[in-house]
Amino acid sequence: MAHNITINTPEDIAHMREVGRLSSELLDFITPYVKAGVTTAELDRLMLDHTVNVLGCTSACLGYCPDGGTPYPAATCISVNHVVCHGIPSETKKLKNGDIVNIDVTVVKDGYFGDNSRMFIVGKPTIAGKRLVDATFECMWAGIEAVKPGNCFNDIGIACYNYCEKMGLSIVQEYGGHGIGKVFHSEPHVSHFPLKRETAVFEPGMIFTVEPMVNAGRRHIMNLKDGWTVVTKDRSLSAQWELEVLVTETGYDILTVSAGSPEAPEWVKGWKKPTFA
Ligand code: MF3
Ligand code: CO
Ligand code: CO
């Protein structure tokens, strides 16, 4: 099938590995600060400072304004509990015990974008919160494991969707992964549920994100009036994890990885976390 998905050169891939590692290191950096009592605005300030002054990057999110909407007002997205994605850091939003929190960061270095997110649980996990966070991680990896030559993008959606069905969870349909490289969001749109149309076959050198949003309740979402925040319609908990995937000759590699990245689930065959010096 014809497509206009970028096939990255070895030089592009080297840049994407570097900025991918830096975006993952930003999440390593913030991990010890994700505690009860901290405001999400304070976490955002800490991450912007680290992005610029330690990593030597800029934030891709600050001022980001696709198709004439409201410019995004912060450096990161911090989405708590029933917030699905694009939670705007706030001076009045304090984290509390049991909260489930997605922190999504995108940084830019030498014109290349690094985009990834992780879930955090504040203090003592609730049973429902931990189950959803862990299941969403497995869902992301189920999608990633579908990446191999000969398969197509729809295989990611089939794997993510089937996993959620089995767990009695629902997958958000309005947002998906995306191609990434010298632009933040490019083709393809990576669906986390099966599409009823043909999708492109994986080719070595493609780079894209897998970033399923999974709800404990129904899949439906609502947009808040601030122009960004997305919440579950039924106010049920929502979780998301995000990694960048490179298609290789034999399978895939993960580009957003650093010393603090979680290990892949045991059943994952295609990738093992490298050791960092
Ligand atoms: N990082 C998000 C993604 O995974 C996009 C955030 S755009 C922002 O694609 F403007 F809200 F930051
Ligand atoms: Co992201
Ligand atoms: Co993304």
Describe the structure.
- The chain has 277 residues and is of the alpha+beta class.
- It has one domain (10-254): Alpha-Beta Complex (Creatine Amidinohydrolase), CATH 3.90.230.10.
- Helices cover 24% and strands 23% of the residues.
- It has helices at residues 10-30, 40-53, 127-144, 154-167; strands at 58-59, 77-80, 83-85, 100-109, 112-121, 170-171, 177-179, 186-190, 207-210, 213-215, 221-223, 230-232, 238-240, 243-247, 252-254.
- The strands form five sheets. Strands 1, 2, 4 and 5 form a four-stranded antiparallel β-sheet that branches. Strands 3-12-11 form a three-stranded antiparallel β-sheet, with no helix packed on it.
- A hairpin with a 6-residue loop joins strand 11 and strand 12.
- The protein is globular.
- The mean pLDDT is 98.
- Bound molecules: 2-amino-4-trifluoromethylsulfanyl-butyric acid and cobalt (II) ion (2 copies).
- 2-amino-4-trifluoromethylsulfanyl-butyric acid (MF3) binds at residues 61, 64, 72, 77, 86, 104, 106, 115, 211, 228, 242.
